[in-house]
Design a protein that fits this description.
The chain is an alpha+beta fold. 15% of the residues lie in helices and 28% in strands. It has helices at 3-12, 50-63, 213-219, 224-227; strands at 30-32, 68-71, 75-76, 95-98, 101-104, 110-112, 117-125, 132-141, 144-151, 166-167, 172-175, 188-194, 207-209. The strands form 3 sheets. Strands 1-2-5-12-9-8-7-10 form an 8-stranded mixed beta sheet, with helices on one face. A 3-stranded antiparallel beta sheet has the order 3-4-13, with no helix packed on it. It has a two-stranded antiparallel ribbon with strand order 6-11.
């Protein structure tokens, strides 16, 4: 299967806006947000502070009369330099290119599955700057198997899950965590589509280096092909 074929499959799985956070938010209440290293407005805040970042998001939403901010696929960010989990001296190997779609809204917001599937795995990835509690779902379309990842959840989101558990489209699978559990970020969902998990369980890289970007963009297509925000 070619990469373009896989992207087309993901795109064709939905025909309209498909929410992955609370269905109470209308599509018109979403707004894109730029968190790249070229966004000079980020220079005015302490990006090492999850509280300062949360205030920035809140003010951005208020200013734009919106309730949910989203974006970040294939975005080069400076925020990861605060964590040794990502930081490297070599610009070729520094992991700073984001591979998922971030959806910024309040902690405890419901997380929905956009597709039928089953629980593949889950784990609390509790490194500083990591996902925190994470769920991976497995999906099948005809003879194609692929995965979706949900990061930065509450700890109790993992408590009742079982590997192999069936999940229906639109089902609440988790809730958004706050900075105390989600890797020390402003509350948001990291949502990622993955063709090949490469043997990973409960985790998969959500940020990569410039050196590896070619592979990862092919293995992890733009999640908005599915969500259509």
């Amino acid at each position: 299967m070619t990469n373009n074929t896989f992207k087309k499959i993901i795109e064709n799985l939905s025909q309209k806006f498909t929410p992955v956070v609370s269905s109470s938010f209308l599509k018109e209440e979403y707004i894109t947000i730029d968190l790249s290293e070229t966004n000079q407005s980020l220079d005015t805040i302490d990006i090492s502070s999850s509280k300062a970042f949360e205030d920035y998001i809140t003010e951005y939403l208020k200013k734009n009369n919106s309730k949910v901010a989203y974006g970040g696929y294939d975005e080069t960010r400076g925020i990861y330099r605060r964590s040794t989990h990502f930081n490297q001296q070599d610009p070729e190997t520094e992991r700073n290119i984001h591979l998922g779609l971030d959806i910024w809204c309040d902690a405890r917001t419901e997380i929905l599955s956009p597709l039928d599937g089953k629980v593949h795995s889950f784990k609390n990835n509790d490194n500083y700057g990591d996902y925190g509690p994470t769920i991976i779902l497995e999906h099948k379309y005809q003879d194609i198997t692929f995965y979706t990842l949900y990061g930065h959840l509450t700890v109790d989101s993992l408590s009742k899950l079982k590997v192999g558990q069936k999940i229906e489209v639109g089902e609440i699978i988790a809730y958004l965590g706050d900075a105390s559990v989600n890797g020390d970020y402003a509350p948001h969902l990291h949502f990622q589509v993955i063709k090949d998990l490469q043997g990973n369980v409960g985790d998969y890289p959500g940020v990569c280096s410039k050196r590896d970007i070619g592979f990862y963009l092919q293995n992890c297509p733009d999640p908005n092909l599915l969500l259509k925000i």
